[in-house]
Sequence to fold (702 residues):
Amino acid sequence: LDFLNLYHTETGRPGLRQRQAEAYRGHLTLSTDELTFGARVAWRNSTRCVGRLPWQTLRVNDLRHVTDHDGVFAHLLAHLRGALNGGRILPTMSVFGPGVRIHNDQLIRYAGYRQPDGSVLGDPQNADLTDHLRHLGWAGGPGTRFDVLPLAIEAGGQVRLFDLPADAAHEVRITHPTCPAVGELGLRWHALPVISNLTLEVAGESFHAAPFNGWYLQTEIAARNLSDEGRYDQLPAVAAALGLDTTSRRSLWVDRALLELNVAVLHSFDQAGVRIADHHAVTRQFRHFEALEARAGRPVQGRWSWLVPPMAPATTPLWDRQYDDREVRPNFTTQLPAWRAARPGVCPFHP
Amino acid sequence: LDFLNLYHTETGRPGLRQRQAEAYRGHLTLSTDELTFGARVAWRNSTRCVGRLPWQTLRVNDLRHVTDHDGVFAHLLAHLRGALNGGRILPTMSVFGPGVRIHNDQLIRYAGYRQPDGSVLGDPQNADLTDHLRHLGWAGGPGTRFDVLPLAIEAGGQVRLFDLPADAAHEVRITHPTCPAVGELGLRWHALPVISNLTLEVAGESFHAAPFNGWYLQTEIAARNLSDEGRYDQLPAVAAALGLDTTSRRSLWVDRALLELNVAVLHSFDQAGVRIADHHAVTRQFRHFEALEARAGRPVQGRWSWLVPPMAPATTPLWDRQYDDREVRPNFTTQLPAWRAARPGVCPFHP
Ligand code: HEM
Ligand code: HEM
Fold:
């Protein structure tokens, strides 16, 4: 009911009274227009998202009638291709029907293969997901550091695996504008971040399969995914490629390798014609978003620790600000990974 | 009483019952040993301080009997010289008697002279303090960007100004290990950060004049004081000295200038033999502090947003952690600036 109010007030559409009456009688199915509005406001309310300025441009595919594996997969492929849009990425969400869930946390993820010595080949963050897919019957990929994982789509209580064709998982090879040795590290990353493990909450309804994408912010790839010690841990390799002396961190070699990797990721995406944000522009845009919201008379919620970038944060206009971190609806909520929820009788947090 | 308990429990000294009885009878004057312990624990409890590992090494000058201007000034000079210790800085606190206050927020501060065009020559953060000192009769300094301000010492209700001799305000000229043009910018910073506007709260007593110092963390100077747009705003100048193209921030010239300025500050302090921490070492030491505190059975409070450094924060071991930001006593509390408190009838926040 709050949502109907919001929808009619903000959009100026007539018919609030009638919809309210329907809701009171207990049968409210959101219209496509209402769902689209709800998804956009969920983005606008995402406290951890610094990229909210274009929230009104979100395209929403209303696929609530799609509830079978093949249908879901076909629409996910269409989502990936349509959202990539030849590099001029379009923020997009696909909302599937009841009983559908995607076990992968993002549609495009690299395998993390546990090795006998305890290390992980690929992305360590995805080791649990990789294990899970193996349990579900995945034979494994070619065994590189960047094997794209298959999708585990759940529908009607059954899970099936689907391989992503190469063109659906578009990737960018990472090269450096002036240091070829960085390019020779063989690093790459996929163009599209499509989050598929958050539940969209609108008007009291929960959509568990509502994958959405924006474009990347370069720090996500360069300052976290490729550089975290618990992820690809590539700063030592980048430093070696740059010929840095890594005897002591006090030389700031870590900071220098980090800078050059960020330069490389921006350069590579730009060269490949794939849209990507940088932390200076996106934080300025966020301030603009705040100004627009203030003008519209709406408070902005935010989580400071997520909004400030992991690189030179004090040079961005968010460092000195404070944010109210309350979560308001419509919004996104987290799901328990399928491989945790799937073991009844076992505590999901201490398995 | 809580404090006496803490003191006797942690130090293992006998006599708790007797001190408690004295406290009940209403006349408790802290012993020098108790005051020293209280000051150390106040440091240990400082949620915003990432440099807490050596909290037990704090030297405390018990000067509660000193309440006159000349005495305070003489002891402040002794503090500055003793704490500098030829560059091997010793964390030190001087606790003065009732009625003493130091109007400067740090003992060593650079003037910020308001110019007719609205800009500030020097450190803009100190423009209000500079105005205040002019009101108190200061004639002004030579007019450089780095004029050390006189001290405004309040005692017995009267304020007097004292010039700091050059050797008390030891400074380091900033040069870059490989780029001489950075050195030619004429940047410098003082060796000692001596915070003089926090009240030490121990056992229900408030010590308003208890200046203390540690050594600097290089990001404080290089990533904030010299680079913030509202401070010395030197990143454009550093970029020019490095010959960077500053047309677009997307080239990450800001990040590169920031890196080189941090390299320069560490290099300059190291060359000058003045102790300074770097953000990689100090965050590791903080983790060690946490481990030691855990072993001692004590919880650690912290403010994440203050503990993470403003440079490459995600490469430090604090990024992924969460801290409880409760303030526990003994601790430090903030004071209203003297130039705000000094105008009765005027709201200090909307003068
Ligand atoms: C258009 C470009 C976009 C940019 C540059 C952007 C940027 C970001 C960044 C940098 C994060 C933090 C990621 C992390 O640290 O793990 C984030 C998180 C988030 N964003 Fe955005 N975003 C964009 C689009 C979107 C869209 C289209 C939505 C939803 C419709 C969205 C909703 C969220 C949510 C819910 C989170 C939190 C994710 C989590 O908890 O893991 N964002 N965004
Ligand atoms: C020994 C070397 C020390 C280092 C490297 C260090 C480091 C730091 C840093 C980086 C900050 C944040 C400053 C800012 O962002 O403005 C800070 C704040 C603070 N430190 Fe330390 N510190 C040291 C010694 C001390 C000592 C000796 C004390 C007290 C006895 C202390 C108490 C505090 C307090 C109270 C704050 C908060 C100041 C404020 O609110 O402005 N620190 N410290």
Notes: The first helix of chain A runs from residue 2 to 11. Chain A has a mean pLDDT of 96. The radius of gyration of chain A is 21 Å.
